[in-house]
Amino acid sequence: MFEANKTWWDKPRHNIDKIVFTPITSSATRVAALLSGEIDFTNEAPLQDIPRLKATPDIKILASNELRTAFFLFNRKDKLVASDVTDKNPLNDLKVRQAMYEALDLDALQKKVMRGLSRATGSMVAPAIPGYTEAMDQRPSYDPESAKKLLAEAGYPDGFSFSLVCDNDSYVNEEEICQAATAMWARVGLKADLDVGPTSLQTAKFESGKFDVGILGWANEPMIDSYSILVQVAHSKSGTSGVFNWGSWSYPEVDGLIDAAGQELDRTKRLALQSDALLKIKSDVAFMPLHQQPMVWATGPKVESMVQLSDNKPRLWMARMK
To answer: Which terminus of the chain is more exposed, N or C, with fewer CB under 10 A?
Structure first.
């Protein structure tokens, strides 16, 4: 619990006396608590409960897209962790990665799994992130027949199996995304062995490289610049770079662009280097961007106003109660 400091030197923008944090992990229990008045605000309103909440008098929904982009990433080592292909890694073949992307119906994911609230994208960064260009947002059309053809050309006419590691308590509807992707990939012969669990267990698998395909989300905070995802995710592991390069991917040309951007003081030149790097990893399908995920907050009848910005951080010092 936090209590307002009555002797604070500045004029407060809120009218709150105290803030009580009540962790509620169950979505159903969280919604029930809001409806009963036990809590006044949640920054994790379940997408499936939005119609019910909207229909409830005095409950207000704040919904938008946050800066965070969710994307699939690949194990790019010599061999996969759990596959019926044991002599090499199929994911190192560009045609295989293209096939996996074309087998995903991103519009269906957006409409059904994300309830139409996400922003389907082909970009690793949101439009508000410096370094973004419209060309990055182009994404392959859903084309399972083309995907099958690409797999056959790569030498996998019957597809292959692999592990799909996903969290159930991290990104918005991540488990449902992975379930839907598993079904879509199965239509072209790709057999994903879905491994779902809490972040506390799954992160260790990612960090140790014990996955074949997984989901990562990146909001480019706190710098709000595409250099963040480039140096931490896209860069080869080297010193403090590539901390989240969990699959051991490596693009020396991209590394050079990122390193140059990190030393360039001219903003225009720096962003051009970053954009170039993002377009190069896009052309090689190094990752499969899915969407900028939705952020849905809900307030109860006692709340007069709440400020929602695209970093998805509640600013309670700017909230006002009735």
So the answer is: N
**8 A C-beta contact, residue 114 and residue 108:** no
Tell whether 38 and 75 lie within a shared domain.
no
**Same structural domain, 268 and 315:** no
Predicted pLDDT at 10: 94
Q: pTM for the full model?
A: 0.93
Four-residue CA torsion sign, 163, 75, 128, 306: positive
Q: What is the pLDDT of residues 109-138, one digit of tens each?
A: 999 999 999 999 999 999 999 999 999 999
Residue 7's domain comprises 2-59+300-321
How many Å apart are CA 270 and CA 26, to the nearest integer?
44
**Model confidence pLDDT, tens digit, residues 147-204:** 999 999 999 999 999 999 999 999 999 999 999 999 999 999 999 999 999 999 999 9
Q: Which residue has the tokens 């080592």?
A: 77
Q: In terms of domains, do 215 and 143 share one?
A: yes
Total count of domains within the chain? 2
Element (H, E) at 295: strand 287-299
CB-CB contact of 112 with 287 (8 Å): no
Determine the Cα–Cα distance for residues 270 and 265; give it in Å rounded to an integer: 7
Beta strands in 158-240 (DSSP E): 161-167, 191-197, 213-218
User: Cα-flanking dihedrals φ and ψ of residue 296, to 5°?
Assistant: -130, 115
Helices of type H across 109-169:
144-153
